[in-house]
Amino acid sequence: MKEKLGVVPFWQGYDRKEVLKIARIAEDLGYESIWIPEAWGYEQFQLLTEIAKETTRIKLATGIANVFSRSAGLLAMSTATLDEISEGRVILGLGTSGKNVVENFHGTPYRKPLTRLRETIGICKTLWRGERLTPEQSTLAELRHFKLAMTPVRADIPIYVASLQPKAVRELGRIADGWVPTFWPYEHFNEGLEWIAEGARDAGRDPSEIELAPFLGVVPIEDVDFARSALKPMISFYIGGMGTYYHDMFCRFGFTENADLVRDLYVAGNKQESIAAVSDDLVDAIAICGSPEHCRERLGEWRANGMGHGLVGLSPGATADSVEFILKAVAPA
């Protein structure tokens, strides 16, 4: 089986020119994909178009587009346009984001996120097939019988969903092509995959056709303690500064005491203490640190636990030179 890995630049400290170099390096090394994030900085579809013009093979993914800041129709149009420009290399990564950024940055009410996700996927697929929308396809908007005034290169552009909650993970088993969990402990992939299988079976689908593509941190250096320390600031931020999603997930998988401590220190404004409090066991459950040989071995363990397409997260402000070392160390065989 082909070892599939993707690359995910971080949205903070994003350097367009460096990421273009990284995309070319990743393509030359045999990486499967590059996933461009979006928060409140650069706009991802324009960045992906720029990368499409500089590459020929690597797949181009939104990592992740939220379903509130663009209408379903605009998402369908943007994705189909990029797929044409890139000659069929797009993966549409979707998620629901969170209430704060959706309402306080985009100015859109954060209502019924799972319903919006489900309906967005249905609308996109209808439009890509060249069919007309119907009013029955949405409970959140008044749709009319529009169809795309262009013919998409592909009617089946793959859609991957980033979700953590059981109900949402089951739903993607019914409607999506891949699952993109962030910081999900790899030894517990089976739990999420079973939720996906339940949804897939309900929809008459084969669960094995839905790919597990987790975000993961990889720091391939001999000094394991230093490698872990490079990841702890981001883990602290996700537990303490990204709402309750990640804290709750870590509690569910046996890290309650550590997650509570990290969160409480972060919320109290003790950021450095929060970072220091992230346990080595938690880091090792969601990331890979150590020598290149160790990292490659651990990637094999992640694959044995169900990973089909690992997405290697890069540090904020990472340069092409520093990233090249990481990508070469764990390049797909």
Strands, helices and their partners?
Blueprint: E1 4-8, H1 16-28, E2 33-36, H2 44-52, E3 59-62, E4 65-66, H3 72-85, E5 90-95, H4 99-104, H5 113-128, E6 159-161, H6 166-175, E7 178-179, H7 189-202, E8 211-212, E9 215-219, H8 224-241, H9 245-252, H10 256-267, H11 271-277, H12 280-286, E10 287-289, H13 292-304, E11 309-313, H14 320-329
Parallel strand pairs: 1-2, 1-11, 2-3, 3-5, 4-5, 5-6, 6-7, 7-8, 9-10, 9-11
Helix pairs in contact: 1-14, 2-3, 3-5, 5-6, 6-7, 8-10, 8-11, 9-10, 10-11
Please characterize this protein's 3D structure.
The structure is a single chain. The chain has a single domain (4-222, 290-329), classed as TIM Barrel, CATH 3.20.20. The protein is 47% helix and 12% strand. Strands 1, 2, 3, 4, 5, 6, 7, 8, 9, 10 and 11 form an 11-stranded parallel sheet that branches. It is α/β, with parallel strands linked by helices and 333 residues long.
Which features would summarize this protein structure in a list?
TIM Barrel, eleven-stranded parallel beta sheet, 14 helices, globular
